[in-house]
Amino acid sequence: MREIVAEILVAIALTAVGMLVVYMAKGEQARSFDLDTAYIIGALAIAIPTIAILEWRRRRKY
Fold first, then answer.
1. Residue spans per domain, the chain
2. Exposed/middle/buried for 30, CB within 10 Å: 0-12, 13-18, 19+?
3. Could you give the maximum distance between any two Cα atoms of the chain, in Å?
């Protein structure tokens, strides 16, 4: 259950970051921007460093 909640929170965070990046780039035109594209932008901005940190922590445990 914890994993599902964590995935939902991550999806919300990725979408929010993507929308923030789009808003910073496009300004007022961002209101009509596609949420899927915002999600992808957020994923690119956050997912790779997050995966690297989690992998580093996992390797440190063992």
1. 2-61
2. middle
3. 49
CA 62, distance to chain mean position in Å, is 28
pLDDT in tens, the chain (62 residues): 777 788 778 778 877 777 777 777 766 666 666 767 776 777 777 777 777 788 888 888 76
Residues 8 and 14: their CA atoms lie apart, in Å, by 10
CA-CA distance, 13 to 42, in Å (whole number)? Answer: 8
Count the alpha carbons within 13 Å of 20 in the hemisphere toward its beta carbon: 10
